[in-house]
Write a structure and sequence with these properties.
There is one protein chain. The protein contains 20 helices and 12 strands. By secondary structure, it is of the alpha/beta class. A hairpin with a 2-residue loop joins strand 11 and strand 12. Helix 5 runs antiparallel to helix 11, helix 7 runs antiparallel to helix 9 and helix 19 packs across helix 20. The longest helix is centred in the first third of the chain and has 49 residues. It is elongated, with a radius of gyration of 35 Å. The chain starts with a helix and ends in an 8-residue tail after the last helix.
């Protein structure tokens, strides 16, 4: 885990090294000060020697100035290293998630990934800064101060050696109890973020069903869970402060008592006792700082594990070592294809799929809810990989293609139409970033979107809110179809993507497809028979298996499922515009 996270340091290695170097120099200057004060008292103040007072005073000023300079530099490089490391870590997580297949994404909720990119990375950033600064400063201060204390009076320094194990055991128990609590806290953060995200995304539904109080209760319950766990952890963590304070006072009183006896017995000077007490404070404060670092590490370790889970997740969509970069045509062949979301052959969503589609054909896909229509088409651009069997595009197994090359030739309009904040032009150019205004207008006309776009005051420069919430469902679908057409793909997949448009508009879109993109293979997943009855072939799915393949007329004569759907829609008055 440490090696995987350390890979994100990269260009900030120099700052990471310089920060502890300057911290060490700062500590050395600080440790010299009590020693110089002891000499100043014994040889200058007590004897009234002004030359020594001025000389040692000058050294004290120089040490203080150097300590300040080294402290500023260490803070500067520590901040640069930690902020840069966090930036790289977020970038690495985000980039790694982009490589995930749908199977990998399904393992992590959206809210959980957001928490890992924000809260968890911030915790690791804070811990990293402490590790390269305070975690270096505290041990260095402890060792140098202890060394100086021993050089002044070895007998009195034994007090520290007796104290360190006592503190170490106490801090160990505090950290051991706190760690699992912090793990629960970050899982609770995931739930809280999920509640917020779900509420904001579905705010219109919440308001239309007057469920604000219910959603508020959900939020309060999730927030209360975090409060309880964090309160419990903090109650345990705060024990380190009285533990350190007790040790500090006990140590100071002990040294002052025995030190006074040593002075009376002429075994120690006043200056040495003052220096020793100063070192006592530094040693115990360094232990307190170290305990604070350990608390932060305990918190960040739980976050680091969660980040590592994402970074160590390998995409199950592997890329061939010698990939094919050219998709010859839009032909598609399923050979004994089976698929399971859990990679368990006993829990298959698709079973023994055998389909042969020629390039340029229009294929309709019909089936009841849960018949795996969407799953079938998602295998073509490798959003998922088949559990068994072969899927060929252009006569080549999809696993042999370069992933980007394959997906550049397959355009999908998903069930859930997604638009991004920005203008209509910017959204459509997702299909082709270099498309001219003329090309954009052309595909918009094909998708029957030009009419409503032109009615907007700003036309194609109309700003869309996140998710396209300021346009209707049917308008979103047509914009997504136009975006897909702008790719000029060899294969176009429409996954129930005209469900929100009327049958007249649906028919006009299909007519435009036939006339304008005859060489593009078109797969239309639909609930309405009217949307696919003019297809070259219609595939009827039932329970994840191919029930029948044929034309509208053939299926109407010989397939009971198709007949049932057709008759139910006919009675419901769902007539096609062209009819």
């Amino acid at each position: 885990m440490v090696r995987r996270l350390a890979a994100s340091i990269r260009e900030y290695k120099k700052a990471t090294i310089l920060a502890p170097v300057f911290v060490t120099l700062e500590v050395i200057m600080e440790v010299i000060v009590p020693f110089l004060i002891g000499i100043l008292l014994d040889n200058g103040v007590v004897s009234g020697n002004m030359d020594i007072i001025l000389k040692i005073g000058a050294f004290l000023v120089a040490a203080a100035v150097l300590s300040m300079i080294f402290g500023v530099l260490s803070g500067k490089y520590a901040a640069e290293a930690s902020a840069g490391y966090a930036k790289n870590l977020r970038k690495d997580i985000y980039n790694h998630v982009q490589k995930f297949s749908f199977f990998n994404i399904d393992k992590f909720s959206t809210a959980s990934i957001i928490t890992r990119l924000t809260t968890d990375v911030t915790n690791v950033q804070n811990a990293y800064q402490m590790i390269i600064r305070i975690a270096v400063r505290s041990p260095a201060m402890l060792m140098f101060s202890l060394g100086m204390a021993i050089s002044i009076n070895a007998k009195l320094s034994m007090v520290f050696l007796a104290l360190v194990p006592f503190l170490g055991i106490g801090l160990y128990f505090i950290m051991t109890i706190c760690y699992p609590v912090f793990q629960r806290v970050f899982d609770a953060y995931d739930k809280l973020n999920n509640v917020v995200q779900e509420n904001l995304r579905g705010i219109r539904v919440v308001k239309s069903y007057v469920r604000e109080k219910y959603e508020i209760n959900k939020f309060e319950n999730a927030s209360q869970a975090i409060f309880k766990d964090f309160s419990k952890a903090e109650k345990i963590v705060v024990l380190d402060s009285p533990l350190i304070q007790f040790s500090t006072y006990a140590c100071t009183i002990t040294i002052a008592w025995f030190g006074a006896n040593f002075i009376v017995a002429n075994e120690m000077t006043t200056g040495q006792l003052v220096s020793l007490i100063a070192y006592t404070t530094r040693i115990l404060m360094s232990l307190m700082s170290l305990s604070f670092v350990l608390v932060m590490i305990a918190i960040s370790y739980a976050s680091a594990e969660r980040i590592s889970q994402v970074l160590n997740e390998e995409s199950d969509v592997y890329v061939s070592k010698n990939p094919v970069y050219q998709v010859k045509d839009g032909s598609i062949t399923f050979k004994n294809v089976s698929f399971s979301y859990t990679n368990d052959e006993n829990k298959l969503c698709l079973s023994d799929i055998n389909i042969d589609i020629r390039s340029g054909e229009t294929i309709g896909i019909l089936g009841g809810t849960g018949s795996s229509k969407t799953t079938l088409v998602q295998l073509i651009p490798r959003l998922y990989d088949a559990t068994s069997g072969e899927l060929l595009v252009g006569g080549i197994n999809v696993k042999e293609y370069d992933l980007q090359s394959l997906r550049d030739e397959v355009a999908m309009v998903l069930q859930k139409n997604v638009l991004f904040s920005g203008t209509i032009k910017e959204n459509l150019r997702w299909g082709n970033k270099d498309a001219s205004d003329e090309e954009i207008i052309r595909v918009a006309k094909l998708a029957q979107a030009d009419g409503f776009i032109s009615s907007f005051p700003d036309g194609y420069d109309t700003y869309l809110e996140q998710g396209g919430t300021n346009v209707s469902g049917g308008q979103r679908q047509r914009l997504c179809i136009a975006r897909a057409l702008l790719k000029k793909p060899k294969i176009l997949i429409l996954d129930d993507s005209t469900s929100a448009v009327d049958t007249k508009t649906d028919a006009l879109i299909r007519k435009a497809f036939r006339e304008e993109i005859p060489n593009t293979t078109k797969l239309i997943v639909a609930q309405r028979v009217a949307s696919i009855e003019d297809a070259d072939k219609i595939i009827v799915l039932d329970g994840g298996r191919v029930n029948a393949i044929g034309t509208h007329e053939e299926l109407l004569k010989g397939n009971s499922i198709y007949q049932e759907v057709y008759n139910s829609q006919l009675k419901g008055g769902d007539f096609d515009y062209e009819e």
